[in-house]
Task: structure prediction
Amino acid sequence: MSYFRITLTRSGIGMPKRTQGVLKALGLRHRMTTVFYPVTPEVAGQIMRVKELVTVQEVDKPLTKSEVRAERRPDPGFYLESAAPRG
Amino acid sequence: MFGAFRPTNPLSGGLLWKIPWRLSKFQKARQRKRLRAVDSLVATLDKALTKQSITTKAVERWKEEMPIEQEMVPKDKYTIFDRKEKKYRKSIRKLPKWTRVSQRVNPPGY
Result:
């Protein structure tokens, strides 16, 4: 079972109501929102409706919201060493 | 003097629109990039669907009717047919929302 990872990269503002409705149906309310859907003909048709606005990847399993957030988190540039045991 | 409705030359009547007819090389490069992005998206969809041996009308129709970016002639990438224009072509930037819509084919012979 594979999934589509869909990210909204261009805004739907000013597009026809049908196009904006497809974005809403996919759960893409803001730019850079990422959603996961199984590979089905229905989802493929929806993606084709908004193909200029989104980027799509095929992935093996969906990530949770927090995992997507963690992906976008930049490298902090430091790490905490574990505290030495105190005597 | 200032503000949205200041009396500039284009606004104070007359036909003075200083919008360049041609796209700059950077605009053309970005246009090609957008075309290729749509091509790769359709390829991704097609690959994912054929893995599960599903065919979708929308994808099949797009593949059949639309040329990919490398197949298109520059005339079709950067201009669009218009019956009212001299030589029947105008810059694609005249198309509303031109960076977010697909406009690839034009009437044959024009």
Observations:
- The first strand of chain A starts at residue 3 and ends at 8.
- Strands of chain A lie at 3-8, 34-38, 54-59.
